[in-house]
């Protein structure tokens, strides 16, 4: 068992609150509200077991994961895949088509080019970027009706923009089905899912600073749904003194510059996760137009000029000053 750095149970109702390190490469927070302490602990263990199981499928840094083993077999026809991996691949196809290519699992190859550029101090050549962008125009794989797949892409594929949200959803669902459970919160590095009647107030980080004590830019309440964020303050790379986002535009090969921060609320975390990436890549008008056709999905988009663009259904509150964003999320039972 990976050691907890915070764990306590409050009564009544019995609310178990634990934080773990080094799960999914980040901090994982689990909160459960149940009738008894034993029921809360059983639900927590069920969530952790599901996270561990799915990590063995999707971990791109583990050569033994199913995803890595499949990527080691490009060109092999009809490789049988698990239902979980097939489901996420189908979602990737869906979002790639719906976004007009703004979402692409092959964008990791572009990230590698820019990371190499940061190491050498020289921007990628236009020819190298065009070759990679051209390669991304082709379908990265073919999914077959018999539950198998054929991988076409020769470069690296990253499913993190979907897989993390999928894991969060599954862990929350498994825990919520346990006996006596009222509400569940699973929070993985800021991507979260809340089930049951409880609600949680989420502080939206300022996308222009990496300071841990910076006041939040907005606050939004999540109940019976999910939230995901995308931002460049904590992630990215520096090239010749300029900081660039880790988010790549698969259509141009360039790092995203116009949208430094996006926060999305949606019924499921896997949907919020995908949209957080897509809305970082699309221009604001196109992003809001896409959201308009997705029921119960809303977003706050912060552009490089500091403006905040909210979809009509966004229920967050903009803040000009407030407590540190390091404040811990806490389920409020209803």
Automatic annotation (TrEMBL):
<keyword id="KW-0460">Magnesium</keyword>
<feature type="binding site">
    <location>
        <position position="277"/>
    </location>
    <ligand>
        <name>Mg(2+)</name>
    </ligand>
</feature>
<comment type="similarity">
    <text>Belongs to the ApbE family.</text>
</comment>
<protein>
    <recommendedName>
        <fullName>FAD:protein FMN transferase</fullName>
        <ecNumber>2.7.1.180</ecNumber>
    </recommendedName>
</protein>
<keyword id="KW-0808">Transferase</keyword>
<keyword id="KW-0285">Flavoprotein</keyword>
<dbReference type="GO" id="GO:0016740">
    <property type="term" value="F:transferase activity"/>
</dbReference>
<feature type="binding site">
    <location>
        <position position="273"/>
    </location>
    <ligand>
        <name>Mg(2+)</name>
    </ligand>
</feature>
<keyword id="KW-0479">Metal-binding</keyword>
<dbReference type="Pfam" id="PF02424">
    <property type="entry name" value="ApbE"/>
</dbReference>
<dbReference type="GO" id="GO:0046872">
    <property type="term" value="F:metal ion binding"/>
</dbReference>
<dbReference type="InterPro" id="IPR003374">
    <property type="entry name" value="ApbE-like_sf"/>
</dbReference>
<keyword id="KW-0274">FAD</keyword>
<feature type="binding site">
    <location>
        <position position="161"/>
    </location>
    <ligand>
        <name>Mg(2+)</name>
    </ligand>
</feature>
<dbReference type="InterPro" id="IPR024932">
    <property type="entry name" value="ApbE"/>
</dbReference>
